[in-house]
Amino acid sequence: MESLKNISNSLKLPPRIKESLRLFKFLKENWTKIMENEAKDTKPLNFEEGVLVIGVSDHYILQKLSSHYLTILERLRTYYPEKESFPVKTLKFVFYPSWETKDETSRIKHILLSKETLEELKLQCRNLSDPELKEAFLKLFQRLSL
After folding, report:
1. What CATH number is given for 4-100 in this structure?
2. Domain residue limits, the chain
3. What is the sign, positive or negative, of the torsion defined by CA atoms of 129, 104, 113, 58?
4. What is the pLDDT of residues 109-137, one digit of tens each?
5. DSSP string of 93-119?
């Protein structure tokens, strides 16, 4: 079977398509180094007109990455081959849950609270007058205590 590189070289693809293919090859090889701890929760989705769109499987991580996008952009520049011009001008993070795990505890592992804090929250929750809201919070606290 012929490699994608050989096929793309033999086809007369527009320069922007070739640039995208080079970028995605680079991202595939360096994604773990670039994204560090968030690599498993993120995935490059699209690149067009200088904008790299990155899917994020968790809202909390999406917010975190959005606030640190300049650092991530700089990491991309650092690992990108010097001989080629760096095509990424900006990053866009979007919620993209399609590959996320169905295991609820792994999705919320970054916000697990101590038993004391959970008990305090449960006590405060019991003072809520809205029964549906009270039940929703109690279920949430139960999940966080796993």
Report:
1. 3.30.300.180
2. 4-100, 112-144
3. negative
4. 555 566 777 777 777 777 777 888 778 77
5. EEE-GGG--S-HHHHTGGG---HHHHH
